[in-house]
Amino acid sequence: MPSAPLHTVHVPLEGRAYDILIGKGLLESAGERLKAQFPGRRFGIVTDTAVARAQLPRLAASLDAAGLTHATITVPNGEASKSFARLNEVVEGILAARLERGDIIIALGGGVVGDLAGFAAAVARRGMDFVQVPTSLLAQVDSSVGGKTGINSPHGKNLIGAFHQPKLVLADLDALDTLPPREFAAGYAEVAKYGLIDDEAYFFWLEENRREIFEGGPARAEAIARACAAKTRFVLADEKETGVRALLNLGHTFGHALETATGYSDRLLHGEGVAIGMALAHAFSARKGLAPSQDTTRVIAHLKAAGLPTRIGDIPGGRLELDELMTNIAQDKKVVRGALTFILTRGIGKAFIEKNVDPAEVRAFLAEAIEA
Ligand SMILES: NC(=O)c1ccc[n+]([C@@H]2O[C@H](COP(=O)([O-])OP(=O)(O)OC[C@H]3O[C@@H](n4cnc5c(N)ncnc54)[C@H](O)[C@@H]3O)[C@@H](O)[C@H]2O)c1
Ligand SMILES: O=C(O)C(=O)C[C@@H](O)[C@H](O)[C@H](O)COP(=O)(O)O
Ligand SMILES: [Zn+2]
Asked: Among residues of the chain, what percentage have pLDDT more than 70?
């Protein structure tokens, strides 16, 4: 039997419970674990070109050693792969490999692969089981957990998708060794998010331990485990986001609008959009008199120290248009009968859901933020 992971976070959803294992060498032991949990099944690995180079050989060797049959479907790396065209390729790849409904899809990669492969698993043969093997920091702390899967539309981020929970999450810390630094920083934005939502102590701990997390010391595994535990809490409370789960969207209404406006390109990674979005959500809350402005300053200082952008003007490649941002914001999935919902804050660790936010107020705020 494989050795115990450093951390295990259990997600006890009724009838769909699963474990998140966090540790070193999990790719090497994946074959044995999968064989024990899914006896007699075949496997379809979905990955992207960069992860296929950096991490697929470890997983494939492990499945081979355990005698597991597997096919691989590879998409180009990058956010643009969360599209109907790539979804079609993945689903057709699953069918061409004759994977049956009872077989298992493995998402090996960052959040793009996880969202795309998870959605393909949700619809291929009307629903197949899938396992998340997150290889980016962002995927290990956020996207591999909780069952949101999907693709983007020119109208907005993640507008097409399904809730489909994985059967297992294997977060191998060794995979992060090959992750580019810009991608690591982008993932860190989602780590900081959990502190900003409702855990001031975690945010302060991050301020103390950020360097060690980036350098790969023991704090890294702890940061990931605490993030997964935090996300699990929200998912258990509100799996389908009818209420409190929306807090996980802190910074995302602004961030998603920016990602759509930049064409889901390298100009702005998701985590970078979230960093700018969280800075804007704090600044907007302070401007409304809801939160102390010192907290905005502190949040921005922390994100900047992590190498993240915090202003719209930090996005390279030309000016963004206010009208376009407002159009994108109007497509947010939290809109109810045309009214905007934002995650605002009373300060660090004190985020809350605000319905009926006045679009004119958002527009006036963004008009200034674009110039800042
Ligand atoms: N479903 C959810 O709950 C959820 C949560 C947060 C974010 N997301 C989504 O996740 C996506 C962002 O995820 P991401 O930041 O992981 O981006 P990503 O999947 O594009 O991965 C980042 C980049 O790093 C590369 N990469 C990943 N792991 C690597 C490794 N170990 N070694 C070398 N290269 C590696 C990838 O090929 C890619 O180029 C967005 O689409 C976002 O909307 C979903
Ligand atoms: O899991 C959630 O819930 C989140 O909101 C996590 C976010 O970090 C993530 O980016 C998610 O994909 C956003 O969801 P969406 O429903 O706003 O598209
Ligand atoms: Zn996110």
From this structure: 100
